[in-house]
Amino acid sequence: MASSNNYLFFLGCAIPYRVSSYEVSSRKILAYFGIEIVEMPEFNCCGLPLDAIDHEVMLLLAAKNLAHAEQQGSNILTLCTGCAGTLKKVNKLLKEDNTLRQHVNEHLKEVNLEFKGTTETKHLLQFLKENIGIDKIKAAVTKPLTNLTVAEHTGCHLLRPKQFNNFDDPENPQILKMLINATGATCLEYVDETECCGAPSAGINDKFALQLARDKLDHIKAVQAQALITICPFCHIMYDTNEMRIAKLYNETYDIPILHYPQLLGLALGLKPDELAFNDLKVDPKKLLEQIINP
Question: CATH number of the domain at 133-293, out of 3.30.450.40, 1.10.1370.40, 3.40.50.11810, 3.20.20.210?
Answer without folding.
Answer: 3.40.50.11810
